[in-house]
Amino acid sequence: MTSAIPGFRRMADSARPPFGTATLPGLDAGADLTGRDYVEEEFLAEGDASAWAITERPGEPTPLGDPRRFVTRVLVRRPRDPERASGTVHLEPLHPMQEEALTWSAAGAAFTRAGDAWVGVTVYAHMAGFLRDAVDPERYAALDIPAPGLEWDILGGVARALRAGAVPGLRVSRTILSGWSATGTFTRLFVREGFARRHPGAIDGAVVVISSGGAGDAGYPALSPGSPAPAPDDPRRTIRDAGIPVFEVLSECESETHEHQTRDDSDDPGDRYRLYQVAGTGHIESWARGRLANSTQLAALGRQLPGTPIHERLSDGRLDLVVRALLTRMDDWIAGRGVPPHAPRLSHDGPVRDNGRDLLRDADGNAVGGIRTPWIAAPLGRYHPHATVAPDAPPMPEWVPFRDPALAAWLRAIVDPFPAERVLARFGSEDGYLAQFTAATRALEDAGLLLEPDARELLDSAPARWAAATRP
User: Fold this and answer.
1) What is the Rg, in whole angstroms, of the alpha carbon atoms belonging to the chain?
2) Which DSSP state fits 419?
3) What is the pLDDT of residue 403?
4) 251 close to 413: Cβ distance less than 8 angstroms
5) % of the chain residues with pLDDT over 70
6) Rounded distance, CA 365 to CA 30, Å?
7) In a 3-state reduction of DSSP, which class is residue 183?
8) Which neighbouring-strand residues pair with 144?
9) Is the pLDDT assigned to residue 132 strictly greater than 60?
10) Domain tally, the chain
11) Residue 292: pLDDT over 90
12) CA 253, 259, 264, 266 torsion: positive or negative?
């Protein structure tokens, strides 16, 4: 049984932009909506949602109590002219820390090139309260998610409303759900616990990014507070039989704990699945800085997040470039335009532990196997998924889900540059380096794991990489 489709109403125009707006003056937010003839609109969605608990049968959760009324917000970015629209909608639950839209941050520029739309949804009760009480009490006065645990029905109901035409001018032929980190875990549970099936026809595919099924409660939490979470060895931690195509895209960080949850790729109609593990990438990389308005808007309210000083250099890895291509491959798979590629897995080695063995590393200290990014295939340093926190790191504010700066540092990927003489000995010359870097870039593009504009961006960056690595 499914609840009624939520009702939508467009929010009144305001002198202040939506929280997390795409285009804040003076901010590089990843895509120029005006220049690409896109519009940004914000809606209130009102409906009923139940809380849920897992059962012994994966994909068959049980409701807890009666449905409860909610009012949430829905942020839409779409082509101004529906005739220009591709029909693909990227649906993203907004992150439980700062309402970040990480799929938009990674791929917004690619979406606007392709004519895709993006929709972000506030699904977490504490974030609805934060927007209403701290961010903009006037604009968000109506927001009300009365309890945690309703997020599964909220997202599913919004997806159904989009397909039913709730947003004028939004053309919806295919809906791809995606999330990163905590919202990647949300996406994992949404498909694994059968919520996509509970809302048939609303979501056509899902992409889980930087979330490990083996990472304890972070990888598979309880569906609602006070309800059970699965045991560490519960088979539901491995995605199967979702009924829609699913990709998992993991950096080295999540791959460390995902060994026991890995499975074979599948083209079976009810179990279409791919796992992509990307060498030389991490949970938090430098590309993510500065693309979203959220931090800037919070700083204006006196809620600036402190930096997390680390001992090492933050990685220049680019998981976002691979994810952009994979979102396109998912769209192709749904639309019947092609079957996505398979990719090698990262290798593990060492003693067996509850959450898997360490990643195998080569003589340079870089991971073995996986998707071979050009900065790994032609390495100028050792890439590692974890930093160490500096002693003077301040704690996170009370309104942040985790306050330990050591954890914030541990999630940051780093690079340890090789000495210039080692780089010169390895490649011989700039031409030698550029040849290897170019070959690796073209191999990813040929495999469908890198889009042409992003391949061009990488190749354009190679001379500067060489110059920095060989500078005395």
Assistant:
1) 22
2) P
3) 74
4) yes
5) 97
6) 32
7) helix
8) 71
9) yes
10) 1
11) no
12) negative
pLDDT at residue 62 above 80? yes
DSSP 293: S
Distance (Å) of CA 28 to CA 25, 59, 205: 8, 41, 29
Residue 94 lies in domain: 7-335
For 294, the enclosing helix (H) or strand (E) is helix 294-300
Helix, strand, coil percentages for the chain (3-state, nearest 5): 30, 20, 50
SS3 270: coil
Q: How far apart are alpha carbons 334 and 311 in whole angstroms?
A: 44
Six token digits for residue 336: 């019947």
In a domain, 407, yes or no: no
pLDDT at position 437: 98
pLDDT (0 to 100) of residue 25: 73
With pLDDT > 90 as the criterion, what percentage of the chain qualifies? 83
Residue 24 domain flag: yes
Residue 430 in any domain: the answer is: no
Q: Please report whether residue 249 resides in a domain.
A: yes
pLDDT at 32: 65
**Is 76 in contact with 40 (CB distance < 8 Å)?**
yes
CATH of the domain at 272: 3.40.50.1820
pTM exceeds cut of 0.85: yes
| 103 pLDDT tier (thresholds 50, 70, 90) | very high
Q: How far is CA 238 from CA 18, 94, 349, 457, in A?
A: 37, 24, 21, 35
Q: Which residues, 6+ apart, have CB-to-CB distance to 106 below 8 Å?
A: 180, 288, 319, 320, 323, 324
- Average pLDDT, integer, range 407-434: 96
